[in-house]
Amino acid sequence: MKLAYLAPLTLQTIQTAKRLGYDGLEVSGGWMENHLLGDLEQNLPFLRDALVEHGLGVTALTLYCNPMAMSVKEAVGHFERAAHLARALGAEVISTFTGRENSLTVEENLPLFVERFGPIAQMAEDHGVRIAFEPWPGHVTGYGPYHWANLATTPALWERLFAAVPNAALGLEYDASHLIWQGIDPLQAIREFASRIYHVHAKDIVFDKARLKRVGVHGEGWWRFVIPGLGVIHWPELLDTLREAGYRGHIAVEHEDQQYMGDRWNEGLLIALKTLRPLVEAFPS
Fold first, then answer.
1. CB of 176 within 8 A of CB of 150?
2. In whole angstroms, what separates CA 249 from the centre of its chain?
3. Region 115-134: what's the mean pLDDT?
4. Per-residue pLDDT averaged across 83-106, rounded?
């Protein structure tokens, strides 16, 4: 198992990962339609050489976009482009969202999902990569209008999606932090969907219970993401559950802790490394 962190693939991030003691990177392919695929394609030989020189790997390539906003042809082409890049970087996983059309119900979104991810899954299988859905719901707390970004947000919906497109090229980028604030048991989710977990995000979360009592679950400011080890997740138990369930993939820190931004960014990554490294070493090599 490689211990990585999520970042754009640059010479600086490669050097930082090596200096801090990480095994590699989960490569950011950009956010929504502001993707970085062109930059990666243009600089691919140089970046691959730098990875080899520093002895690092790529655990996954992210493609955080909204396929529902694209035509079927455009969506399949977008993912095929990412598949070529992932394989060129030595990765077998593309982390993503399903996308979602907010004016439609879940039931009405499912045919759109099938239209796009049926052929995307077949393409992924043909190219030897797997698609891993992260369970981020979108901007669905706070006082503004809800904006869902994803259908793959709960075990109940995972079950429906995998039934709608049963190709095993589709799976999960497991992230307990997105499950816990929704009231979902993160360990039961591992046990139930172990065979579909293709990549893991390490991100922690803390709650302000006093504020929750005033604003409710739909309000804002009652939870926030923190560095692994600084929140409520019991990482030894979580990684033990993954190991016992047979997980043999990789894990990447997703650093979204606002207390460790800017000049403190690497400090946060070091805290995550200290928390996770002993646990990762318990996995079979």
1. no
2. 13
3. 98
4. 96
Give dist(CA 225, CA 235) in Å, integer.
15
Q: Supply the pLDDT for residue 145.
A: 76
Single-letter amino acid code for the residue at 77: G
Confidence of residue 32 (pLDDT cuts 50, 70, 90): low
- Residue numbers of the domain that contains 96: 3-280
Does the pLDDT at position 181 exceed 90? yes
- 36: confidence class by pLDDT, cuts 50, 70, 90: confident
- 197-226, pLDDT tens digit by residue? 999 999 999 999 999 999 999 899 999 999
Read off the tokens for 161.
């999606």
Helix (H) or strand (E) holding 275: helix 265-280
CB atoms within 10 A of CB 30: 17
Q: What are phi and psi of 8, to 5 degrees?
A: -60, 150
Position 35 in a domain: yes
Neighbours of 120 (CB within 10 A): 28
Contact 24, 270 (CB under 8 A): no
Q: Does residue 285 lie in a domain region?
A: no
Q: What is the pTM of this model?
A: 0.96
CATH of the domain at 14: 3.20.20.150
Q: How many domains does the chain have?
A: 1
